[in-house]
Structures are given as C-alpha cells and as structure tokens.
Design goal:
This protein is of the alpha+beta class. It folds into three domains: 95 residues, Up-down Bundle (de novo design (two linked rop proteins)); 122 residues, FAD/NAD(P)-binding domain, CATH 3.50.50; 98 residues, Polyamine Oxidase, Chain A, domain 2. It is 35% helix and 19% strand. The chain contains 14 helices and 16 strands. Strands 3-2-12-13 form a four-stranded mixed sheet. A three-stranded antiparallel sheet has the order 7-8-9, with no helix packed on it. Strand 12 and strand 13 form a beta hairpin. Helix 1 runs antiparallel to helix 2 and helix 8 crosses helix 13. The radius of gyration is 27 Å and the shape is globular. The model has no long low-confidence stretch (mean pLDDT 95).
C-alpha cells in the first residue's frame, strides 16, 4: 500500500482566538517565536540577577544564558526585540533594489498570555506527533479496503452480531443481516477474537467472567465530530501559502486541517473544516449533517475570509450517530485503566478482545493493529499449550 507524508505542524498555519487580536488569526510561527523570546528574556534576567545561584553553578548559568540566547533569539543584551528569522517579516527579503526586508513587530507577552494562543504551540510536541507521520494514498480507509482485498470471501458483510456464546470447546456467534434479509445465522469456531466497539459489545449477550463484563461496561466512548469541506479552489495555498498542517482555534470547530498532498492542484480542494471532542462535539452531534456543515463554514469564515465565496459542499461524521460504533474511541482514565485494563485484555475462556480500546494508543489505527497482533499471539500460545489443533 503506497504511503504519503502527513504534515502535522506547519508554522505558516494559524493560531486563533475569537477573543483576542480583534479575532484576527495569528501565524503559528509568530506566536511561537514571541512566546519563546519573552520567556527566554525573563529567565535570562533572573539568571543575571543571581536568582538561580542556589540551583546552578556560575559555569552552568553561563551555559544557560548561551542556550537562552539561541532558543529565544535574544540580542547581545539578552533582550527579545523580535527576530525576523523566527517570526517572519512585515516585508520578506527578496532580490534586487527592493530586496531589503522590513522587520515585523513582536507581540507583547501579556497579549500572548491573555489570548491563550500559547496553548497551541505544543501541538506537535506530543509523543504521537513527534515522528514523521504517513497516511495511505487515498485516505485511511484504504487500510480496511486492503484487508478486504486480501481476505475476500472470508468477510461476511452486513452481519449484525446479536449473541456470543462460548463453551469448553469453542465459541458460537449468532448474527443477522443488518438489512433485515434472511433468517438469523450462526458461526462456530474454536476461538474468538472480538473487535466490536465496547458500547456495542456491552449490549450483546456475552457469557464471560464478571471481570471482563465489568471492563467492557467501564469504558465510555468519546463524542467526536469531523466535518469535511470542499471549496472551489485551494485558497489556503494560493492566498495564504499554507501547505498542510493544522490551524487551532477556540471556536467550537477546534481546528482546521489542510491537505498534505496535491499541492498546487487546479480545481477544487478539500480540507478538514472541524474536528471536535467533548461538549462541542455533543452539540454538533445533535444537528443534522447539513447544519453541521453550515456551522463549520460559519465558524471557519472567521479565520479564512474566503470560506463563504469559495465553499462548494461538505460532509460530516458524528461518531455517536454511527450505529456500529456509538462513539469515536475509548475514554480511559488512570483509575479505570488500573482497575479494568488487564481484565479487558485477558483471554477469557476462548474469547479475547482487540481494538484501540485494548491498547495504550487510543483513537489510532495503530492501537487497534498492535492490540490485535498481541491478542492473536497470546491466543496462539494458549491454543498450542492446550493442544488445540484447530
């Protein structure tokens, strides 16, 4: 399956607060450079005023000052006056007689702190986001399509599981056609790897131990909504020079994700117009799909003025409205993991669960895949140990 790069952090994207800077979005690089610069200046002042004598030796303080000058782009006096090389210019450098750049004006630390835009700076510092990320060409759905291509007739489509029963010799699964066609059917196997999302599994009769049953019922699923918007042209590239990455906002849409491929393509373009969790997602879930799309356009137009004129059409997915999932991903807490995680993953008789909910990489396909690999490895060892030849 061919892969392509996925851009997580783009310094040319925006950080946006509807309550700061008159609602005007700020470039990521500007907020990052100014926040780091001001913090570096404050720490350098504290160091020079001997405030760190009890913590650092004089030699280490000198090294710290040197590092702060580099990290914060401070001048020779350890002051932050704004660095075009970090935050950009009011007029970019060029060639010829008009080559001279015009410096940009840094934003005051107080304004940055009050805006809370600093909260978006660390978006790419999370462990999951630090590495180079890739996506299948054509979207994440290509992974499921590849499994379908390899497994062929082994997959029973439109099969709604209504009962799971195990005994000493195997597992019987009762299912019916989700379209209401034909009588109920049964499948029998020696072992069962169950990947049904927990909110659905909790509603299916399942004879397992009380510990596993409690674990299945203990994990709520996140409410999440995504909205995809198609526009008549890729204005974010043509007008604003944004190629991939994410804009973060305090508006209910939470963020706008720009495509990582197809740069400079002519014609229509698609971006992620919203990706929200929590109360905002619950609010959007209560809307019709058309209302969600319209709201995403309304909110997004506060960041990109081209939205209304260039909008073509859109689509939305609210995971709590998806009958086969009833939520986006498992919401573990430290307490619930300590109490139920091992029980959820344990082989229960002849049944073992797998999925992102049975991993520490929640909400990612990687979590589901690594969970499944672990489950079948343990199941194989159990079958061999029991002398099961099936």
């Amino acid at each position: 399956m061919p892969l392509e790069s996925f851009v997580q952090v783009n310094y040319n994207a925006y950080l946006h607060s509807s309550r700061a800077f008159d609602g005007k979005p700020q470039r990521f690089r500007e907020i990052k450079a100014d926040y780091q610069g001001h913090v570096a200046e404050l720490l350098s002042k504290a160091t020079q005023q001997d405030a760190l004598d009890a913590t650092l030796s004089k030699e280490d303080q000198e090294k710290l000052l040197e590092s702060l000058r580099s990290w914060g782009a401070l001048d020779k006096n350890y002051a932050y006056v704004g660095s075009g090389e970090r935050r950009g210019y009011r007029k970019n450098p060029g060639g010829g007689v008009s080559a001279r750049p015009i410096p940009s004006t840094p934003i005051g630390l107080g304004d940055i702190l009050n805006s809370k835009l600093w909260s978006g700076i660390a978006a790419g510092d999370v462990f999951d986001m630090q590495t180079a990320l890739f996506q299948p060409v054509g979207g994440m759905g290509r992974i499921g399509e590849a499994f379908a291509r390899e497994l062929g007739p082994l997959i029973h489509y439109n099969a709604k599981v209504v009962d799971i029963r195990q005994d000493e010799r195997g597992v019987t699964v009762a299912y019916q056609d989700a379209r209401g066609l034909g009588p109920p059917q049964k499948a029998r196997a020696d072992w069962c790897v169950c990947t049904i999302p927990l909110p659905i599994l909790a509603q299916i009769p399942l004879n397992v131990t009380p510990a596993l049953a409690a674990a299945v019922s203990a994990v709520p699923y996140a409410s999440a909504v995504k909205v995809g918007l198609q526009f008549k042209r890729r204005f974010w590239e043509e007008d604003e020079h944004i190629y991939g990455g994410i804009t973060y906002t305090d508006l209910p849409i939470a963020n706008i994700g720009y495509p990582s491929t197809g740069f400079h393509a002519s014609g229509k373009g698609v971006l992620l117009g919203a990706y929200m969790f929590g109360p905002q997602a619950a609010d959007f879930t209560s809307m019709t799909p058309a209302e969600r799309v319209q709201k995403a356009v309304d909110y997004g137009s506060q960041i990109h003025r081209q939205y209304r004129e260039e909008f073509d059409n859109g689509v939305s997915v609210a995971w709590h409205r998806v009958p086969s999932a009833m939520g986006c991903a498992g919401l573990w807490t430290s307490d619930s993991r300590a109490k139920h995680y091992d029980d959820l993953c344990a082989i229960d008789g002849r049944i073992v669960l797998a999925g992102e909910h049975a991993s520490f990489i929640g909400g990612w396909q990687e979590g589901a895949v690594t969970s499944a690999l672990d489950a079948i490895d343990r199941l194989h060892q159990r079958a061999v140990a029991q002398g099961d030849k099936a």
